[in-house]
Design brief:
The complex is a heterodimer of chains A (62) and B (460).
Chain A: H1 8-19, H2 25-46
Chain B: H1 11-19, H2 25-43, E1 46-49, H3 51-62, E2 74-78, H4 106-113, E3 117-122, H5 156-163, E4 169-174, H6 180-186, E5 189-192, E6 212-217, H7 220-230, E7 261-264, H8 274-287, E8 292-293, H9 298-323, H10 330-339, H11 344-364, E9 370-374, E10 387-390, E11 393-396, H12 397-400, H13 406-409, E12 415-420, E13 428-434, H14 439-451
Parallel strand pairs in B: 2-3, 2-4, 7-8, 7-9
Antiparallel strand pairs in B: 1-3, 4-6, 5-6, 5-12, 9-13, 10-11, 12-13
Helix pairs in contact in B: 2-3, 5-6, 7-14, 9-10, 9-11
The chains are: A mainly alpha (62), B alpha/beta (460).
Chain lengths: 62, 460
């Protein structure tokens, strides 16, 4: 099923209210642009399937 | 032998000259302060110079009060390190209104305990969310090889100050590449140690999951000398390792004998300008390395590093984004705001994937000791440049200067940068990547490349 294109502008508007952030009108376009860039850059991670058993390391030891 | 008072002098040469009595620490500090004053109108690397403190310390050294392997070596630190009596700017205007640091950061104390002399604090991208070295509040630090170009960031002042010969040694921080990118663009040796290897106590954080501190210098020996002086457990940093200090300097003499060296393929062999891959090929040839290894899922690793950075960084700054948005650098503000809105599920997935990727990459280190990869996809872009073309694709500069560094710091691997000066062109660096706690292997390769003349300090 094809994914519907997200309405990033609305996500920014509503999300900002939820986290208690006032985004001035002059900042808004760039915030939207950066969320769109994040969607693009995050894609290789979001497309991955991980095993249910895979746990993160609360204290990371390389 | 290089004059210990010249701008080409390494930390090793200065310490040797001061220890042997050939030169006074006070003379070294006076020469350093004079160079800073002369260079700063064009380089803009420093935000604070602590001349009085440095002269006092030098006088104490000259009177025999201090000893140590870095005796009389001037150094400066990115302005996210605490310096007693100064506000810890972290590249911001906002932090100036905060309290002044009560004492020096842990690594400043360690370097001074080894005889070094702090001379100042260095410019950086705001709150370290930067690969360019640009800063709206304090001006951009400029690349000494071409002052119309970026120093790289976010440790931009650290790269510019050492490359300009203002100081032989600087400390920076590296969350996604902020030591390695300026090392590459300014043509310096740099070391991002293993995650947790050096204490971060007394430094302003950015992304706790990936924050590292380390040195930039004019030689591989200076990296090893300063790294050794900074090792050791610190209860003030919750991730600092309790492994015993493991000196790397004595091991440089071993060269590359016995080291298995390979080239990173696939992800690390595309998406950059030809000079990035030519540099890797030059280094591989000098080392006789022909084997290629594939870091599996490197693109996903870069994506996960990006997500964790965006969300942890935004969470850290959310109170300031709510109350003082107008006081941020616009280039960081809107990225932090965007990060505050990304789904928490992405973050958790990125952290889970981190463990899987770590296991896959550590498996590679059963067959190799050091992996070669480009440090940056290109040489220094022009100051103010926002877009660049890589492999024919138009991409934002800020988000993409770290494409080759992010998948490495994501799992905390130690990396040394070997600089290639490219006469007639601009410098570029190669990452020498080792398994956790194996800094000595990366530093031995860097020292060998220096010895055979492939990796060199920038012209003084």
């Amino acid at each position: 099923m094809a994914q519907e294109k997200p309405d990033v502008a609305r996500m920014v508007e509503e999300g900002a209210k939820i986290v208690g952030l006032t985004i001035a009108p002059e900042y808004r376009a760039n915030v939207i642009l950066n969320v769109e860039r994040s969607l693009l850059i995050a894609r290789p991670l979001l497309e991955l399937e991980l095993e249910d058993e895979l746990m993160s390391s609360p204290v990371f030891r390389p | 032998m290089t004059d210990p008072l010249s701008k080409a002098a390494t930390a090793t040469a200065i310490a040797g000259a001061v220890m042997s009595g050939k030169v006074k620490a006070s003379a070294v500090v006076d020469a350093t302060l004079a160079r800073i004053e002369a260079a700063e109108s064009t380089i803009n690397a420093f935000t604070d110079v602590v001349a009085e403190r440095a002269r006092k310390r030098a006088a104490e050294i000259d009177s025999g009060l201090h000893r140590g392997p870095l005796l009389g070596v001037p150094f400066a630190v990115k302005n996210l390190f605490d310096i007693a009596g100064l506000p810890t700017r972290a590249g911001s205007k906002i932090n100036i209104d905060g309290p002044k640091a009560a004492r020096d950061g842990a690594l400043v104390r360690k370097l001074e305990a080894a005889g070094a002399i702090l001379v100042g604090a260095l410019n950086m991208g705001e709150y370290a969310y930067d690969f360019t070295g640009e800063n709206i509040h304090y001006g951009s630090s400029r690349n000494p090889r071409d002052t119309t170009r970026m120093s790289g960031g976010s440790s931009g002042g650290s790269g510019a100050a050492v490359a300009a010969g203002e100081v032989p040694l600087a400390l920076g921080s590296d969350t996604n590449g902020s030591i390695r990118v300026p090392s590459s663009l300014c043509g310096l040796f740099g070391l991002k140690p293993t995650y947790g290897r050096l204490s971060r106590a007394g430094s302003f954080p950015f992304v706790d999951s990936f924050d590292h501190l380390g040195p930039l210098a004019r030689s591989a020996e200076d990296l090893a000398l300063s790294f050794d002086a900074m090792q050791g457990w610190d209860s003030d940093d919750p991730v600092c390792t309790d492994r015993p200090v493991d000196p790397t300097l004595p091991r440089l003499i071993e060269g590359v004998d016995g080291l298995r060296i390979a080239i990173a393929g696939e992800y690390f062999a595309r998406g950059g300008e030809p000079e990035a891959f030519e540099a890797v090929a030059t280094v591989a040839k000098a080392l006789g390395a022909t084997k290629t290894v594939i870091l599996p899922q490197a693109a996903a690793a870069r994506a996960a590093a990006y997500v964790i950075t965006a969300i942890e960084g935004a969470q850290l700054h959310l109170p300031r984004l709510r109350t003082r948005p107008q006081d941020f650098d616009p280039d960081t503000r809107e990225r932090f705001m965007a990060g505050a809105l990304l789904p928490g599920a992405w973050y958790v997935k990125a952290q889970r994937f981190r463990r899987q990727y770590r296991a896959h990459v550590l498996k590679l280190f059963e067959e190799v000791d050091v992996i070669l990869a480009p440090a940056t996809p290109c040489t220094a872009p022009k100051l103010g440049q926002t877009m660049m073309k890589l492999d024919g694709v138009e991409l934002p500069v800020r988000a993409n200067l770290g494409v080759f560094t992010q998948p490495i710091s994501f799992i905390g691997l130690p990396v040394a940068v070997a600089p290639l000066q490219r006469p007639g062109g601009l410098p570029i660096g190669v990452q020498l990547i080792a398994k956790p706690y194996n800094e000595q292997a990366a530093l031995r390769v860097a020292a060998h490349l220096q010895k055979v003349g492939v990796a060199t300090a920038p012209p003084a």
